[in-house]
Design a protein that fits this description.
Strand order of the largest sheet: 3-2-1-4
Number of strands: 4
Strand content: 5-15%
Shape: globular
Number of helices: 9
Distance between the termini: 27 Å
Largest sheet: 4 strands, antiparallel
Structural class: alpha+beta
Order of helices and strands: HHHHHHEEEEHHH
């Protein structure tokens, strides 16, 4: 997937300005944290799941263009008690598989001051970095799991309608054992498409 296509998906799904997302990515590219077209290449390189996860973090944790590389580095490096990095969890969701179904029934909260994040996947709550403050407010951005799952599906090449259908199906079925695109489950996808119209 190219940067422009990914920026359009993030802007539409997160209700953000596409140009702002592009500028955040340019700041990351200036610091060597994001791929860019070199020399006479006409097209920028394809983005992989870690690049797309970084782009998502940049869009959600935006504190100004000048702070972008530092904020993204901080948020990406947040770890849970088991040592898992937040960026790896997000990249895994973006790559698809079972995590799409569990993400559809969860949420993501990124706190920038103090740096921390909370992820709920299929009812399992995990804190990355600093825990949420108990006695004061924290600057945070929350993304519903359905939105996160739809972004991941579109990053994977599905149309917006297909992404919405699969997310609705995952929420309705309430299980992480469903691959709506598998032949054995095509009746569920057909029914969901009919209902969602």
């Amino acid at each position: 997937m190219r940067k422009a296509q990914a920026a359009e998906i993030l802007a539409r799904r997160l209700k953000l300005d596409e140009r702002r997302i592009d500028n955040l990515c340019l700041r990351l590219a200036d610091q060597g944290m994001f791929p860019r077209a070199d020399g006479s290449r006409r097209y920028p390189p394809e983005l992989n799941a870690p690049h797309l996860a970084r782009m998502l973090v940049a869009a959600l944790a935006d504190q100004g263009l000048g702070k972008t590389p530092g904020v993204v580095t901080t948020v990406e490096s947040l770890r849970d008690q088991a040592g898992n990095r937040l960026c790896d969890v997000l990249a895994n969701i973006i790559e698809g598989g079972d995590t799409i179904n569990t993400a559809a029934r969860g949420h993501l909260v990124i706190r920038t001051e103090p740096a921390g994040a909370s992820v709920v996947l299929d009812g399992n709550y995990t804190t990355f970095g600093a825990p949420p403050p108990e006695t004061s407010a924290a600057r945070a951005v929350s993304v519903p799991g359905a939105t996160l799952a739809a972004i991941a599906l579109e990053f994977g090449g599905h149309s917006p309608a297909e992404a919405d259908t699969v997310v609705a199906l995952a929420k309705l079925m309430g299980t992480d054992n469903v691959d709506p695109f598998a032949a054995s489950n095509s009746k569920w996808l057909t029914e969901a498409q009919r209902v969602l119209g």
